[in-house]
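User: Just a sanity check before I run the rest of the batch. Below are the structure tokens for the first item. I only need the designed sequence back.
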């Protein structure tokens, strides 16, 4: 493991894909919760933070789902926010992007069963 300063920014396919997914989820959240066409300031800020965390993720291409990660690199405030986004946007992701989302999101079992039927 390297320190953040000497680590190259992650740019592998897995990290890039995760960035796309997280961005989509934040967008869904903002659109439906804050009723904005474009990301509002707060969500923009969260999005930038999330992208930065992924770029600096010490596991890079080896990373697991963030929810299962042992490090939890988010500060508590952002962690709370992103959790809320995941919880809110999870079900929408299943509708819009089912294959991408299944691995990442803590979906209630009931819901998981109903979509895989
Ligand atoms: Zn917003």
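Assistant: Here's the designed sequence for the first item:
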């Amino acid at each position: 493991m390297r320190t953040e300063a000497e680590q190259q920014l992650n740019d592998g396919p897995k990290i890039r894909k995760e960035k796309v997914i997280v961005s989509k989820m934040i967008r869904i959240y903002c659109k439906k919760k804050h009723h904005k066409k474009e990301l509002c300031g707060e969500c923009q800020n969260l999005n930038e933070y999330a992208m930065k965390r992924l770029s600096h993720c010490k596991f890079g291409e080896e990373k697991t789902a963030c929810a299962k990660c042992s490090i939890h690199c988010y500060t508590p405030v952002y962690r709370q926010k992103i959790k809320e986004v995941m919880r809110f946007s999870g079900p929408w992701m299943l509708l819009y992007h089912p294959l991408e989302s299944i691995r990442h999101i803590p979906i209630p079992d009931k819901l998981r069963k109903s979509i895989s039927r």
